[in-house]
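Q: We require from you a single protein entry containing the residue sequence and its fold in C-alpha cell form, and nothing else.
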Amino acid sequence: MADVARRAGVSSQTVSRVSNGHPGVVDTTRRQVLAAMKDLGYRPNSAARALKRGEFRTIGIITFSLSTTGNVRTLEAIATSAAQHGYATTLLPVAIPTQDEVRGAFTRLGELAVDAIIVIMEVHLLDAATVSLPPNVGVVVADSDAGDRYSVVDTDQAGGARDAVRHLLDLGHETVWHLAGPEESFAAQRRTDAWRATLQEAGRDVPAPLRGDWSAESGYRAGLRLAQEPHCTAIFAANDQMALGVLRALHESGRTVPDQVSVVGFDDIPDSGSFVPPLTTVHQDFAEVGRRCVEGALRQIGSDAEERGTTLVPTRLVIRRSTARPPAPAC
C-alpha cells in the first residue's frame, strides 16, 4: 500500500479508501491510484480486510444431495443471488444426513470463515426426528419443516400438489393415482399428504400410492404397473423426471396420453415442455427461493435477533398437452 501511495503521490489512507470502494475520492485521484495498483500488481488482501472488519462476505451452503433437480436449481439460485449482493458462496456437501455429519459440516464451515449458513435440508435426518443446528450463527434452512426453530424458506409444496389434483378432478377424472417421491424427502411427504387430502375432501377414492426415487427409471417402473390398472385415467407424479418415465411406460404399454391417461408432474424443469406430449406440471420458482434464502441470511449477519418461521414461495400450474378429459365409458 505504501508503494502504491508513493507511485500515485497520495497518502496510504487514500489508497485504502480507493481499494475499499469509498465514494469520497476525487475521480482523477482514484484513476491515479488504480493506475499505480495496476503498474505495481497490487491486490488488496481480502483475508486481512475480513479479519479487521469481522466479516468475510461469504455464505456457507450445506446440502445432502447434488443429484436432484430441486437441490441443484436451489443451489444455483442461492449462488446467483449471493453474488448480486457481493457475497461468495462456499459449498459443503454432506454424504450422510446425520446429526454428527451436520455438526461436522458446521465446524468445517466455521474454519473456512463464513458469515452465515444456508442448509438445503431436503431429507429427514437418519438419527433424529428434527435437526439441531449450532447456536450463535445465522442460519436459513431451505426445504424443511423446522420453521418453529429456524428461518425456513420453501416452495408451497402442498399448494402445488392441490392445484395438480384439482386440475385433474375438474377435467372429470374420478380419482388421481400418485407416484410419490422418496420417503425421507420433506417435499415428497408434503406433496403426497396434499394429494391424499384433496381426494378425501372431494369424496373420492384414494388409490395406494406408488413410490419412486425421483429418477425417470423409477417412474418408468411405476408407469408399467399403472398401465395395467384399467381404471387409472389420471396420474400425478411428484416430479417431472418420474413423469417422463411414466410417459414412456404408458406409450410402450399402448396407453395413449392424454386420450386414455392424463399425467401431471412437478417442478417444471426446462425440458418439460419438450416431452411427448408436452407435460402439464407445477412450476417452482427456484430463483425466488434462492433470493429469499440469501436475504434471510444477510438479515442475520451482524444481528443478535433470531429469525424463525416459514416463508412459502407460491407455485403455479402450467397446463400443457398431457392432460385432458377422461375417455368416455364404453357402451
Remarks:
- The two ends are 89 Å apart (CA to CA).
